[in-house]
């Protein structure tokens, strides 16, 4: 009940705000939804900084500090510092490369790797993302845009993973996903032109996460 109340409150705040949309960080650091990556990546010269905390149902917390940058068109690299409560912190390096841009009929495709040095669990993946016809083209205004994501990976993305994201205007992104093991749902909303706030229910909705990220250009 606590999680649902906070998520609903966040959605109400998002709908009241007006801001520009941009690529968002996942709770694992790289660009994506809640935990899963998408085929989207930071633009060349764009970078983000993020901090996340997840409260486990057992009373433990988990923090992530992340930084990513778009080095070349379609190429995103970054690092995340993960630290479980009472445990040692690890630096996880990641990279994502776009293989195909999106058109009206074809999806966007990307490959990536998380935790290159295998500090926790090296994960390789291939992911596709495809936007459906946005209602903005029906109502001639930016109202709602639905995007489907699906991929296959190993490590922390165990087998098939998938997700659905829905952009509400230029302000909020609603997210539901299965990361190969468990279901997650979240809301990401923008304040101004650079800041995003994140809320999520993770691990089959047993855990709760909060975060903030900043996107800028060099």
Quick overview:
The protein has 218 residues and is mostly beta strands. 9% of the residues lie in helices and 52% in strands. It has one domain (2-217): monomeric porin ompg (Porin, Beta Barrel), CATH 2.40.160.40.
Key features?
218 residues; mainly beta; Porin; globular
Rg over CA atoms:
16 Å
Question: Roughly what percent helix?
Answer: under 10%
The main β sheet shows up as:
12 strands, antiparallel, barrel
Instruction: State the CATH architecture.
Output: Beta Barrel
Please tally the β strands and state the result. 12
Average pLDDT level? 86
Strand order of the largest sheet: 1-2-3-4-5-6-7-8-9-10-11-12
% residues in beta strands: over 45%
The shape is globular
Derived structural class: mainly beta
Q: Number of DSSP helices? A: 2
Q: Kindly report the name of the CATH homologous superfamily.
A: monomeric porin ompg
In the CATH scheme, what's the topology name? Answer: Porin
CATH class: Mainly Beta
Query: In whole angstroms, how far apart are the ends?
Result: 42 Å
Name the helix and strand elements from N-terminus to C-terminus, one letter apiece: HEEEEEEHEEEEEE
Question: What would you say this structure looks like, in words?
Answer:
With 218 residues, the chain is mainly beta. It has one domain (2-217): Beta Barrel (Porin), CATH 2.40.160. 9% of the residues lie in helices and 52% in strands. It has 2 helices and 12 strands. It has helices at 2-16, 136-139, and strands spanning 46-55, 61-72, 75-84, 90-100, 108-114, 123-131, 144-153, 159-168, 172-178, 183-191, 195-202, 207-217. The protein has a 12-stranded antiparallel barrel with strand order 1-2-3-4-5-6-7-8-9-10-11-12. It is globular, with a radius of gyration of 16 Å. The chain starts with a helix and ends with a strand.
């Amino acid at each position: 009940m606590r999680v649902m109340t906070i998520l609903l409150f966040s959605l109400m705040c998002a709908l009241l705000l007006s801001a520009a949309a941009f690529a968002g960080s996942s709770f694992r650091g790289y660009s994506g939804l809640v935990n899963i990556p998408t085929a989207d990546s930071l633009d060349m010269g764009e970078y983000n900084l993020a901090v996340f905390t997840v409260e486990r149902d057992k009373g433990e917390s988990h923090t992530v500090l992340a930084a990513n940058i778009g080095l070349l068109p379609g190429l995103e690299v970054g690092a995340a510092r993960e630290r479980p409560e009472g445990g040692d912190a690890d630096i996880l390096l990641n990279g994502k490369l776009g293989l195909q841009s999106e058109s009206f009929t074809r999806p966007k495709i990307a490959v990536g790797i998380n935790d290159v040095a295998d500090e926790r669990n090296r994960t390789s993946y291939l992911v596709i993302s495809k936007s459906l016809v946005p209602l903005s083209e029906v109502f001639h205004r930016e109202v709602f845009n639905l995007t489907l994501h699906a991929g296959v990976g190993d490590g922390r993305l165990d087998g098939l993973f998938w997700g659905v994201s829905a952009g509400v205007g230029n302000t909020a992104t609603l997210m539901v996903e299965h990361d190969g093991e468990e279901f997650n749902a979240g809301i990401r909303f923008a304040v101004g032109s650079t800041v995003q706030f994140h809320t999520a229910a993770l691990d089959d909705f047993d855990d709760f996460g909060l975060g903030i990220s900043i996107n800028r250009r060099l």
